[in-house]
Amino acid sequence: MSDVTTAPTHCPYCALQCGMSLRPTGAPELPVEVVERSDFPVNRGALCGKGRTAPAVLSSRVRLTEPLVRCPDTGRLVPATWEEALAAVADGLRRTRADHGPDAVGVFGGGGLTNEKAYLLGKFARLVLGTSQIDYNGRFCMSSAAAAHQRAFGLDRGLPFPLADIPKSGCVILVGSNLAETMPPALRYLTELKENGGKLIVVDPRRTRTAEQADLHLAPRPGTDLALALGLLHLVVAEGRTDEEFIASRTDGWEAARAGAMAHWPEHVERITGVPVPQLREAVALFCDAPSGMVLTARGPEQQSKGTDTVGAWINLCLATGRAGRPYSGYGCLTGQGNGQGGREHGQKADQLPGYRKLDDPAARAHVAGVWGVAPESLPGPGRSAYELLDALGGEVRSLLLMGSNPVVSAPRAAHIEERLRSLDFLAVADVVLSETAALADVVLPVTQWAEETGTTTNLEGRVLLRRQALTPPAGVRSDLQVMNGLAALLGWEKGFPTDAEEVFEELRRASAGGPADYSGISYRRIREEDGVFWPCPAEPEESAPEHPGTPRLFLDRFATADGRARFVPVVHRAAAEETDAAYPVVLTTGRVVSQYQSGAQTRRVDELNAAAPGSFVELHPRLAERLGVADGERVAVVSRRGRSVAPARITAAIRPDTVFMPFHWPGEGRANTLTNPALDPVSRMPEFKVCAVRLERADAP
Ligand code: SF4
């Protein structure tokens, strides 16, 4: 691979998957630089600081370039050859399997892995290791929205329409999303919406930079979004704003959903949420007066122990007002991780097979087993969800292979998960730097990064994209695909595991054919020529032309249920798993800042990003700060039933007085996830990152 070609590619970070080009510099300290690509429609050349500085991680001085194996004598990680390291991993996994059975071996993936890696990791776990115990960190990201999407529409694709439709809508309700910090180039879609005369309602307990753009900002108490949506639906019905023709012709289940909403009187909803009734009425007027409308959710309503029902309540609002399955209307989820969408479609999820097929569906098992050349009954059944898998480490799950994730920082109740990881018989981690999780491993495998390999991702719109190799990887690192190939051979898998990404994609196309996420008509050639193809895109018969165009907009004619009708699901408000009380009187909510990404494993290694966002903080209202007696910048201890974190106070009137906010990107004493509650949503198995009860203490002596 030449180092002298400018290569069009995509950012390694969030689900927007901004287009960019990489140009070689010839300088060893920064071998490529980012060049804007104004022709890519999603970001039209705009990038945030993370994307702009992404090449810095390629040549970071803390980049891993040789495998590490833990020395039995000193307990330290020491350099090893690839042969030694892979043999040690194969031995560790084989020993566990022999002593405790295949389900004692766990596999944990990530929403940043390419489609090819996610696909092959699921196949590796189920065929080579024979384990059902595989899940990934995307479970912590958008699984509640995915479950609600499936339940209502019969199909989950984050956005069922392109981002470019947003400015053409009449009104957008943005729930629990701070686009200005999480994916800044997307903010322009909201700006254009307003320039076109559309209205923007933002629902967020904090007056974020995104909320400042809104025509109306609703600031509910964290964990009460479900009640808020029910209150709005109550008013829609009471004010005669339902779309009866749409309800009758395209939906089922309205009466039960309607009855649920009518039990939530606006005054009752005001008491639960803290949002005044006049604001509820104003929101209904803005949404229903507009000719079209969208509801977009992100982690705020989703990361709750009732996340699926919360998203369901917002979907019910869309359906009751006829704002779904129509141009410039609908419900959508703003997925977070770079391949959060594709990562959940191709088999690294505990309950799914490639093509977004269900693992417990006999027809799906038969199809995928046929592509893999094995008997359907040889495929294990569904395994534990991400948190349950991590919680079982050291117990029923004795060894773990982990790729593309850093749960020591990102898992809820993180100190407990760190302890579980330490209690394993064997831990192998593939990563680009020595993350906090990799530092606990028995073997660390240094792997290639985004610009050093080719592979596809699927962005939040369902647009399948190609990241192209621009750079030869450093000697001493291998791709994740090579890692699986090497381990499969050592573990006695004789059918081979491909190491070429396009070859893996060709197999993925066959495995996904006929499934809900059908990629069979998508090829590397088409992605290159068309700059992305939206799934579903089934293969047409050989002789037919033109090829299937892909599907930018879903549900316009029918929903993806068996009868083509959307389903209302009746939901009722319920409290968060952990409410405030005298001992823990304040609500903690968590989130992101613009200059860091997820667990920070990559972005904390970039000087420019670190300078902008050097560490954790506790955002709190001036009244709360005064009661506590802390000044801005003084250290505050935040204590929950799971632990204690300490970080400087950031005092602002932009947050509710009963709530504090902490970003979750950092390990150590400021680790927000030390505090968070792993209470799970019963459907999606999403932990309740967004709400738990805490108390505050001064950390510095007065
Ligand atoms: Fe990368 Fe997301 Fe920033 Fe775009 S918005 S440059 S995809 S991190």
Structure, explained:
The termini are far apart. The mean pLDDT is 95. This protein has 702 residues and is an alpha/beta fold. Helix 4 (115-129) crosses helix 21 and helix 8 (225-238) runs antiparallel to helix 11 (266-273). The chain is globular, with a radius of gyration of 24 Å. The strands form eight sheets. A seven-stranded mixed sheet has the order 5-4-18-17-16-6-7, with helices on one face. A six-stranded mixed sheet has the order 24-26-25-30-23-27. A five-stranded parallel sheet has the order 10-9-8-12-13. A hairpin with a 6-residue loop joins strand 28 (677-680) and strand 29 (687-688). 30% of the residues lie in helices and 18% in strands. The protein has 24 helices and 30 strands. It folds into four domains: 7-58, ADC-like domains (N-terminal domain of TfIIb, Single Sheet), CATH 2.20.25.90; 68-140 and 339-534, Rossmann fold, CATH 3.40.50; 143-333, 3-Layer(aba) Sandwich (Dimethylsulfoxide Reductase, domain 2), CATH 3.40.228.10; 586-698, Barwin-like endoglucanases. The structure holds iron/sulfur cluster. Iron/sulfur cluster binds next to helix 1.
SSE arrangement:
Layout lengths: L6 E4 L8 E6 L7 E5 L12 H4 L2 H4 L9 E3 L6 E3 L2 H19 L4 E5 L5 H15 L4 E3 L6 H11 L17 E5 L3 H4 L4 H9 L3 E5 L12 E3 L6 H14 L5 H7 E2 L1 H9 L3 H8 L3 H13 L3 E5 L1 H4 L4 H14 L9 E4 L6 H4 L8 E2 L3 E2 L3 H11 L13 H6 L7 E5 L3 H4 L3 H9 L3 E6 L11 E4 L8 E4 L4 E5 L12 H11 L10 H12 L11 H7 L2 E2 L31 E2 L18 E6 L15 H6 L5 E3 L1 H7 L6 E6 L2 E9 L7 E5 L13 E4 L6 E2 L3 E7 L4
Parallel strand pairs: 6-7, 6-16, 8-9, 8-12, 9-10, 11-22, 12-13, 16-17, 17-18, 23-27, 24-26
Antiparallel strand pairs: 1-2, 2-3, 4-5, 4-18, 14-15, 19-20, 20-21, 23-30, 25-26, 25-30, 28-29
Helix pairs in contact: 3-20, 4-20, 4-21, 5-14, 8-10, 8-11, 8-12, 8-14, 16-21
The structure holds iron/sulfur cluster.
The site of iron/sulfur cluster has 14 residues, from helix 1.
